[in-house]
Amino acid sequence: MSSQGPKQVLFAQFAVVAKTLGHAHRLELLEQLAQGERSVEVLAQKTGLSIANASQHLQQMRRAGLVASRRDGKFVYYQLADDSVLDVLAALRVVAERSVAEVEQVVRSYFNERDALEAVSREELLQRSRVGAVTVLDVRPEDEFALGHLPGAVNIPLRVLERRLAELDPANEIVAYCRGPYCVLSYEAVAALRARGFKVRRLEDGLPEWRAAGLPVVSGSA
Amino acid sequence: MSSQGPKQVLFAQFAVVAKTLGHAHRLELLEQLAQGERSVEVLAQKTGLSIANASQHLQQMRRAGLVASRRDGKFVYYQLADDSVLDVLAALRVVAERSVAEVEQVVRSYFNERDALEAVSREELLQRSRVGAVTVLDVRPEDEFALGHLPGAVNIPLRVLERRLAELDPANEIVAYCRGPYCVLSYEAVAALRARGFKVRRLEDGLPEWRAAGLPVVSGSA
DNA sequence: CTATCATTCAATGGAATAATTGAATGAGAT
DNA sequence: ATCTCATTCAATTATTCCATTGAATGATAG
Which residue does chain A place closest to B23, by CA atoms? Predict the structure, then answer.
């Protein structure tokens, strides 16, 4: 067991990290953590896991070095250990997209392919927002918005979007975003708003990628 | 099981890919495949696995879309499905390096830290080889060399290096490379050649990364 | 057509992992 | 100090995964 070469030891370590990524619940937890720091309770609630189960998955990821935890009062807050975790998730996504036919099917059937293609790049959004002719719309829940959002973004969670259409200027083009490339919220927001006659597109990816690109993020509620 | 949202389905697919990466033997097989196409028998022999075991791991990776197979006569040849597989492996390495302390320890204790730091970049090697003042030394076994190597490279496998020192020009600087960032061969070659008074450095990474960077690769034995 | 060889399949036992339950810890609040 | 609450630990069961064995394909060679 222990008389292996250095290569075996390294591969074993890499395997631990990969294996830890190899569970849907943990990937979902990581997607949540990509939004920002979260307590165990919130994570469990957002992912639909039991507290104990979420706790154990989180600890396993901590052991693998994917996340870090911090205690504040009676809450324990978890966060991604490093930006490189986002990178490996992105790389994983690419492999799965290119190689697993089923993924593409799912994406095409659940999401509108055109919307994906017409997504606004971060660079384009930056340019346009300098001119001021764009409404940046964050359709995530309030708590995620409060933890961090794009500068100047308006927060109208998808659930209440229909009721708060009056807050949006129909003359301005809208760019909607949410958690990441596979977050359903912004897709549905685009569909809903287009049905009402708004001119609206999706931002490519979501907040975590924006932050990882080194672009400014504002925290606190508006 | 089936009444899940699209997100769960996607995460489940990603998890399959990650889980497939989560085993040391499969990572070792992938490192071999990164060198080029290989038959099951050769892969089993190079990794020290039984034929049946190697076959099953390979099939699992094929199901996950990580590798592709092709039959030629009585042999079945496997290869990486896509360059993106190399990307995800690289990302995995970064995460493991940054987060798992043990990895760094292993790297530092088995390899010479200075050699890692003094590695020659691909760009630098290209520049220097245009001037012609560099001997490019491939220390992998003959069969791997035959499958693909750097243009103008000399192949002296590490095992026979001591016996074939005469083939190297002591006046020229030598740049040694092998399979990848954690391949021991080039580290040992550097150590051995320095002890003999040669001026020698390692190439960063190895052949797969060279190929992935879009740089030219020659196949066939010299 | 039979023999041979590389690979795959099928089945086994053994090990690791996942989710649930209920109890234990550790920090604030009363 | 005692109580409350968020989190973790410990123990259990069900499930999945791993490596080995020997038999079954599928292709070439004689």
Answer: A15
Secondary structure element (H or E) that encloses residue B83, with its range: helix B83-99
Sorting pLDDT into bands at 50, 70 and 90, what band is B4? low
Task: Tell whether the model's pLDDT for residue B208 goes beyond 50.
Answer: yes
Whether the beta carbon of A1 falls within 7 A of nucleic chain C: the reply is no
- Going by C-alpha positions, the residue among B103, B17, B124 that lies closest to residue B62 is B17
B71 CB burial (10 A radius; 0-12, 13-18, 19+):
exposed
Are A95 and B66 spatial neighbours (Cβ–Cβ below 8 Å)?
yes
Scanning residues 119 through 158 of protein chain B, those with a beta carbon under 7 Å from any atom of strand D turn out to be none
Interface size, chain A vs chain B, as Cβ–Cβ contacts under 8 Å: 189
Mean pLDDT, residues B115-123: 79
Residues in B 83-112 whose C-beta is less than 7 A from nucleic strand D are none
What's chain A's average pLDDT? 87
Q: Going from the N-terminus, what domains does chain A have, and what CATH number goes with each?
A: 6-84 (1.10.10.10), 110-212 (3.40.250.10)
Look at strands A75-80 and A67-72 and give their pairing.
antiparallel
pLDDT by residue (tens digit) across B26-46? 999 999 999 999 999 999 999
Q: What phi, psi does A169 have (nearest 5°)?
A: -85, 115
